[in-house]
Structure formats: C-alpha cells, structure tokens
From TrEMBL:
Superkingdom of origin organism: Bacteria
GO biological process, one term: regulation of DNA-templated transcription
Protein name: DNA-damage-inducible protein J
Species in which this protein is naturally found: Ligilactobacillus salivarius (strain UCC118) (Lactobacillus salivarius)
The organism's taxonomic lineage, starting at the top: Bacteria, Bacillati, Bacillota, Bacilli, Lactobacillales
Pfam family, one: RelB
Length: 98
C-alpha cells in the first residue's frame, strides 16, 4: 500500500459547503475529488478540466486576431513567417529589439 501524507487546503466556507454538497450527490468526498484531480494532472500532464474566465472566454480583439492568424498558418492558408531560434540568446536579442 502506498503511504499517504496529510495536505491542508484552504477553501472559502461557502465554496466548501457547496463543493461538499455537490460531491455528496456524486458519492464522493473532498479528499477523493482532489486525489482524482491530482492523479489526472500527473497522468495527463495538464489540468483535468477546462479553465475559463467569468466572461465566458470572450477574447479581446488582439487575442482573437492572433488565434485566427495562428490557425491560418497551421492550416497552410498563409505562410508561417514566424521567427525561429536555435538558442535562447538569439531569441532574447530578437525580443529586446522589438
């Protein structure tokens, strides 16, 4: 059996109350939930759920344009003229020059 350690997590009282209620409905407790989330992060090397802003992920215009440009390059619709670097020093020199 794997040795377990105690971890303390601080939650807002109301959040804990709502979380406990929802997890009870699913037949889980807080410990099981955080253990599942931690195992998924370790296995998949990413947050196991979508993270979004309260504004429903409405990107500002600059971000939206950058995403469209990146997708067009990825699809080969326009040439990918993004600079490429073989080392960090060259990249930093380029960035400092902008």
């Amino acid at each position: 059996m794997t040795k377990t350690v105690t971890t303390t997590i601080r939650l807002d009282e109301e959040l804990k109350k709502e979380l406990t209620h929802d997890l009870d409905i699913m037949g889980l407790n807080i410990n099981a939930y955080f253990t599942m989330a931690a195992k998924q992060l370790v296995l998949k090397k990413k947050i196991p759920f979508e993270i979004s802003t309260s504004s429903n992920d409405i990107s500002n215009e600059t971000t939206r344009k950058a995403m469209i440009l990146a997708e067009a390059k990825e699809l080969g619709l326009i040439p990918d003229d993004s600079p490429r670097f073989s080392n960090v020093d060259d990249m930093m020199e380029f960035l400092d020059g902008e």
